Structures are given as structure tokens and as C-alpha cells.
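Fold this sequence, please.
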Amino acid sequence: MHIQEGWPVNIMSDAKTEQYARALPIPTPPYAFIITEVSYFLKFIPACANRIPHEQAKPIQPTKSFETPGNFSRGQSLEISRTKLSSSIMTAFTPYDISVIIVSYNTCNYLAKCLESLTCSRQPHTQIIVVDNASQDASLEMVRRRFSPVIAIANSENKGFAAANNQGIAVSQGRYLYFLNPDTEVYPGGLETMIRYMDSHPDIGIAGTALVNPDGSPQPSVEYRYPGEKHAKKTLAGLKGEIAWVLGASMIARTGAVKAIGGFDDTFFLYGEEQDLCLRLRKSGWTIGYVPDAVVMHWGGKSERHHTPSHVWEKKFRAELKFYRTHYPACATRRICMENVAQAIWRIATLHLTLPFCQETSLLENKLEKYRTALKIFSSRQ
């Protein structure tokens, strides 16, 4: 995509976005049928009369096929069987292959480099959406000046990562959604590689990419277990695939699959939302994937660089506790909290014993702060 400089940017306020959200709602419950649209499809493909699902705004290229996980039968809950059908008529619903959604919070310089990496992509049918959570560093002015076709949503307050992504989903028009952190740079060919991967793996609902540090060394981007999973094995039994979740800094998802489960859970403010999203997609019958040939450089933690370590750790532990309460039985959550409290007490005691013998104490002090915060959060369970 070639983006010229100097054009007026398309900026919407958060109030305007809410109007768009009402116009393009995220459907709940999952896989809701709309009779009129199904009837429209049946006129073109009568052979599939009893097996055509509707997922709002889930467009597909003419030569591709339409896949949805699960099983569907009359009188049962809407678990839709995977059906392959030619869908040339659906290309009229979307002009884009992929919608890139970037949530920005005081990351102006990094955001500029991120957008530059995207505009250098050879992928022509790309929509770019920036949702700014009330940044104070002229991020929106930079987007207006340098990246004109980008849709910029200006929030009057910091709504959090999950809620801001949902704002981007509401105005997206791509077959796929690509959630990208602002402190990243997508290597050439990355978008094309992601799209090819998703097109060739119809069972994948969401996939992570390879992440590297600025020096080129690899970052972990795929996890095969959920936090506290050993205490909730029965709850998590029967999920498809080996990958549990992928890092939210760079992940591509099927638009229809994400909208069908209601998007992100916006009660997660920051941290834990990608674990929650991936688990809900797996519960809906999708598999989590990984695209190793799509490489993204990730600086990491730049939106939190002005906060104290204890403040960051508190948000992480609260998100972790919320994940347990959302997905695990109460008895499992109690065991996990007790385990974290015991570990925190032990680590605090051993670090206090070690501290007098260390010349460089800053690292140990940071660890002490981490475990003090864990003790506070998991002992109060609030």
C-alpha cells in the first residue's frame, strides 16, 4: 500500500466510534443467524440450503472457502458445522484482505516506525486503524501529518487495550484482523505471509507470529499452557490444538470468529486479554496457530515505561486473577491463590536473607517489590 503524506487524516472521536459500533455490532451469542442474509445466499448456492452459517462481516475471497468450527443441527445450540462453499458474492462486503488494529498510548515515535513498516508492505488490500487512548505525546498529530489514509480513533480517556481493540473491530472491513502493538515493526512480506497461512489453515481462528528483539534475538510469542492450568485440567480438557495462547503484540485472527465471540472482554484493562481471547476461541472450536515466517520486531513495554515496576506488576497480577475467576472453578482459583501466597512469602524471606550480601541490590529490590505485590493481590483475592 502506498500512502501519500499531507492528506487530512480520518479521525473519529470515541463518541463517533460508538455510533459506528452500533452500526456494526459485534454479535452475541456466537454464530447468530440472520434469516434475510441466509436467504440471499441460498439464491446463489441452493445445494447448501441447510448448512449455510452467517457470521457478520466475515468476507472471503472468490477462490477461498468458508469455514466455521463445530456442529449444527436443528433444535440444538448454534454450533455450526464447517462448510466449504464458493463465495464470490461475499467479496462485495469488504474491500480489504486484512484490517490492522493498533492501540496507541503515548508511543508516538514507535508508532511512526510501526506505520512506516506497514506502508512499505507489498500487500495492497490493507486497512490500517489506530485507536489512541488519550495520548499526550502528539501521536494523533503525527498520524494526521504523515499517514493520511489511516483511520484514527481519538479517545478522550484511556479505555484500556481490550476496549480500544473492540473499537477498531467495530469499524474494520477486512477478512482478517491483525492486532499489532505500536512498539513493533513488521518485516517485509509479513502481512502477505500471515494471510497465506490463514487462507491455507481454515481450522485456525487466531495465530501469532515470530517476535524478535531489536538485536534480532527471538522473543517468546507462543505458550502451550495457561496460567495455573494444572489446577483446572478438567475445565480445559478437550480443547483443540497444542498451542494455548499467543502474545497479543502481533496476532492475526478471522474477523468472523472474533466477532462471533463478542470480541475482546473489555473488563480486562491491560494484560491477560490475549489469553482470554485465545481460550474463548478454543472453547468455540477453533485452533490457535503460529506463523514462524512472519517476523515482527518488538521493543516491548513502551506504553508502560513511565510507570513504576510495582504498578505494572499489580496490573499483571490483577489480570491474572481475573483470568482465573473467569475461566476456572472457584476451588481451582483458591488453590492457585494459596500457591501464589506461599511462593511470595518464601521468596520474600529468602531475598531478605540474601540482600545484605549483595553489592548490586537494585535487582533484588525489584524482585522484592514483585513478590510483595503478589502477596497483596493473591491474599486479598481482589
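Residues 330-354 form the longest helix (25 residues). Confidence is low (pLDDT under 50) at residues 1-9, 17-68, 70-92.
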